[in-house]
TrEMBL record:
Membrane topology: Single-pass membrane protein
Family: Belongs to the TatB family.
Record bears the keyword Transmembrane: yes
Chief subcellular location: membrane
Highest classification ranks of the organism: Bacteria, Pseudomonadati, Pseudomonadota, Betaproteobacteria, Burkholderiales
Keyword Transmembrane helix belongs to the record: yes
Assembly and binders: The Tat system comprises two distinct complexes: a TatABC complex, containing multiple copies of TatA, TatB and TatC subunits, and a separate TatA complex, containing only TatA subunits. Substrates initially bind to the TatABC complex, which probably triggers association of the separate TatA complex to form the active translocon.
UniProtKB keywords: Cell inner membrane, Cell membrane, Membrane, Protein transport, Translocation, Transmembrane, Transmembrane helix, Transport
Protein name in the entry: Sec-independent protein translocase protein TatB
Subcellular location(s) of the protein: Cell membrane; Membrane
Function: Part of the twin-arginine translocation (Tat) system that transports large folded proteins containing a characteristic twin-arginine motif in their signal peptide across membranes. Together with TatC, TatB is part of a receptor directly interacting with Tat signal peptides. TatB may form an oligomeric binding site that transiently accommodates folded Tat precursor proteins before their translocation.
Coiled coil: none
Gene3D superfamilies: 1.20.5.3310
């Protein structure tokens, strides 16, 4: 980069004062300052754009690497699952059922339909247990329950 020292800047300022003149020098200096500012902003924008494009390329590379790694993991998991499934199927096919010896523990349990004995079980409960647990012993209609728990009328002549 160009190295401007104080002596070089003073020389440039003196030449500009002689060539441009003292009346136009402030306006020219202001214009030069604006142009230098625009140039610096433009250079900064270009640098930022280059940095963004480099970062984007790096992110694309990283994305590709992660996708490759994910595919490798997926393939390895799939192959392991397939191997385990094949081993299990081979073990299942190779296994022979044990011969039936007629013993009590060797017998295969047979499904037995559950009998619907809940009515018998309810009626077999003692009355004191039903009263303690809140099981109704007698069915009562809704109107009869309302009449039973209605408070008595006071002041009625019967």
């Amino acid at each position: 980069m160009i190295d401007f020292g104080f002596d070089k800047l003073a020389l440039i300022g003196a030449v500009a004062l002689i060539v441009i003149g003292p009346e136009k020098l402030p306006r020219v200096a202001r214009t030069v300052g604006h142009l230098l500012g625009k140039a610096q902003r433009y250079v900064a924008d270009v640098k930022a754009e280059v940095n963004r494009s480099i970062e984007l390329e790096e992110l694309k590379k990283m994305k590709g690497q992660f996708e490759d790694a994910a595919r490798d993991v997926e393939q390895s998991v799939t192959s392991e699952v397939n191997q385990a499934t094949a081993a299990l199927e081979n073990a299942w096919a190779d296994a022979e059922p044990a011969p039936f010896t007629g013993g009590l523990h060797d017998a295969v349990p047979v499904y037995k339909h559950p009998r619907k004995k809940w009515r018998v079980k309810r009626s077999a409960m003692p009355l004191w247990y039903k009263q303690r647990t809140g099981i109704r012993a007698k069915a009562q209609s809704g109107a009869a329950r309302v009449a039973r728990f209605r408070p008595p009328r006071s002041g009625s002549s019967a």
